[in-house]
Amino acid sequence: MKNIFLNTLFLFVSIITFAQTSDISISVKDAETNEPLLGATVYFEELEKGAVTDFDGIATFTEIPNGNHIIKISYIGFKTIETTINVGTKKEFAFKLESGGNELDEVVIQSSRSTRTVRKIPTRIEFIGAEELSEKAVMNPTNISMVLRESTGIQMQQTSLSSANTNIRIQGLDGRYTQLLRDGFPLYGGFSSGLSILQIPPLDLKQFEIIKGSSSTLYGGGAIGGLINMVSKTPDEEPTLDIMLTQTQALGSTANVFYSKRNEKFGVSLYGSSHYQKAYDPEDDGFSNLPQTTSISFNPKFFYYPSEKTTFWFGLNGTYDDRIGGDITKIESGENGIHQYTEENLSKRLSSQVVYETQLDSVSSLNIKNSISFFDRKLTIPDFAFDGKQTNTFTEINYQKSANKIDWIFGANLYTSDFDENDNATLQRDQTDITYGAFVNNIYDISDNWILETGLRADYNTDFGFFPLPRVSLLYKNDSGFSSRIGGGLGYKIPDIFTEEAEFINFENVLGIDKSSLNAERSYGINLDFNYQTLLFESVGFSINQLFYVTAINDALLLNSTDNGFFQFENATDEILSKGAETNIKFTYKDFRWFLNYALIDTKLNYLAGNPQKPLTAKHNAGSVLMYESEKWRIGYETFYTGKQFLSNGTETTDFVTMGLLLMRNFKFGSAFVNFENFTDRRQSKFSPLVLPPHDNPEFPEIYAPTDGFIFSVGIIIKPFGNEDDD
């Protein structure tokens, strides 16, 4: 009887306690400044009740049941926290949020050459982080083209149907005006440029940094249209092992493996990739839309940490790549009758990187780096071969000093490039270039709201002379979510024969560079952008970036025909003028993200009568990406619109829309995924022929739309050391 009474009493007290509620307040402040955060969201997940902080950073709630509750506190630009509070024990709770949330304010951008974060750099830099890179790696595990193609204002221009050679275009400007970097090293220029995008797998990269517009002051010649810096993953104390296997319905198989680990003094990262693609002809016209490809890459890096302030690392990168496209019958069975045409690109590259970084004191550091890259490529078509070797070297030393409101960077570098064509070639187009450079860059906090960046580079090329390259950028930011940047500078490009026009005709009958009669290409450009981020309806994150730009190129390098059947390079008599606008909008709600973008690209060739639009450049482009991401699932739906373009002969092409769908499920062992790329099967052969007769010596029209069509892939990512998002 006594036990029944005690149990009844305990149950009665528990019911009364549970039924009790409290009115509470939750204070949210900036952890760095201790200032209240207006507009932060506080959400009780189980109760489905939320509130937004007021001017004093306080959110109030009434009639919250006593007991433990999980709350989520989020604010754009800050890290979201999820914690448990005990209502009833007290009525006031206080939390502080750290910067570095949704808008990546705390990400350090390496291409800026400073240790500042995104929010405090006047130069406009677009950032692609590890999460988005992992999505694109699933969509295309063989190379980085997917990452770049879906960035606003960037076009991947395929120059060959047979070998799938592809160049990157930023804001309508040819690929030779974009400088590719990896960990700050110039990467894959000259003879290798048409294959560079296709030979960089994405699995061992942790972030992309894209600067649009002239960036020659920071990194020297070639960065007229902009630069792309790919930052590699580095080893951590916890070991990492990622194994990624992918198979497509187009008979493409890819395997990627990445491993890294470090201890107190030493670290290592090992990356290997292999890819095999069978020749693929989706329209059954007898010619491949994807070449038969065998590609193998290996990239080991070794790290030494003699102290907490010093890092030394050494890396090697080796690639073997063989691509054969053209007549399917010849590829599979050998030459037979009219089945004679193939194009083969056989390339081998080996590069080294050495970096020494040391913190001299609390405000200054010293960096020394060197790279040597060797590239051997043979391009073969019936009755013609273009065969050569290219060796590039890059050496740099820079000193950085960061004070409370001012950052300085001083540096000097040496860049050499040597192309040696096969001695048996009829036209000997060897070219050697040596460029010395020195630069200084300064970032100064005028006030809490205004930051100024100025820089000056002086380059001297032994053949083309002296190039002074100033630049200036100004940033305004406030605490209400608004910021704006304006900046501009000068650029230049040393002429070489490796242009898109020369690549299109396989360098056949293209005369070498006459340094005595040609001028280096020079440019000037300016960017202006506006950013705003806020909360809509108390729970929807919203951000918008609006960019306007102008870039002009003088003495542009043109390939013109001669009376005796050859092609020679000349400087344009007037400028190439590229101007336009880019709009990027982002919505976030719980586990959903929606990205919208639009690019207006108006690139005029003012050296031609009537100032026509640059061929193969769509004036209007738009895109939509809807993502759902939870601990278990990642689902993405993409739609991209490409507007009408003009061919070199003045013909106007059709516009088109491509769509893609990604489904990924996370498990404890890793992830499994399926990807439907271009599932509406938009390809150029549905609008116009990809191959023109005769069959034994075909002509290939310019490429303005996808050539491979719908690609379905399935794959698995195995993480033996555990998955961050398991079930």
TrEMBL record:
SUPFAM superfamilies: Carboxypeptidase regulatory domain-like, Porins. Coiled coil: none annotated. PROSITE patterns: TONB_DEPENDENT_REC_3. It is found in: Cell outer membrane. One of its GO terms (cellular component) is cell outer membrane. It is a multi-pass membrane protein. GO terms for molecular function: siderophore uptake transmembrane transporter activity. Residues 1-19 form the signal peptide. Pfam families: CarbopepD_reg_2, Plug, TonB_dep_Rec_b-barrel. One of its GO terms (biological process) is siderophore transmembrane transport. Residues 118-226 form the TonB-dependent receptor plug domain. Residues 294-677 form the TonB-dependent receptor-like beta-barrel domain. Keywords: Cell outer membrane, Membrane, Receptor, Signal, TonB box, Transmembrane, Transmembrane beta strand, Transport. Belongs to the TonB-dependent receptor family. This is TonB-dependent receptor. It comes from Mesoflavibacter zeaxanthinifaciens subsp. sabulilitoris.
